[in-house]
Amino acid sequence: MKKDKGLIEYSLSLIFLMICIFVVLLVFSYRRSIVERYYIEDGLAASTLAAAVIDTDIYGETEDLIISNTDNAYMVFKQTLKTNLGLDDAFVPVNRTFMDSEVNVQEFRVYNVKDGLITEILYDEHGNKQMQVLGSGVLTPNGKEVESTTVYSKIEFDVKGYMNHVQRQTMEYCADVVKN
Length: 180
Prior knowledge:
Blueprint: H1 2-51, H2 56-62, H3 70-85, E1 104-114, E2 117-123, E3 129-134, E4 150-160, E5 166-176
Antiparallel strand pairs: 1-2, 1-4, 2-3, 4-5
């Protein structure tokens, strides 16, 4: 009888220990994913802000904050995004710890505001450029009202989670350029 009781206590202790180890692994995995997500959000924000390069000649003449060379702004955004997120030239992460796929730039938009008119320049996921003049009361895709020259970006990538579970993630950021 004593042998059976010791075996049961030993088995229950072993099961409890395995459950504790599993919970600790889940907590570490969750913490790691939070840190990586902040890292990616910060990289996207910094890249979007870097692309907000106003034309100093226009600003010097008219005090209008305009991004006149949107092709350059798009190139600066992509270059800075590669640097900030540790991507190679094909936008694939060099160190695949969290992001598990190529990072796709889904949208890059520049909203230039001048004399109450808003001009939207959109670069789609293939880098194609479209331009349209809009009135007032324009919202960015993430719902922010455009009041001054604004840059909006949206990226998409796969995230590797616990036990190699892969999930598609989308992140977006909006940065406005103000005089103050």
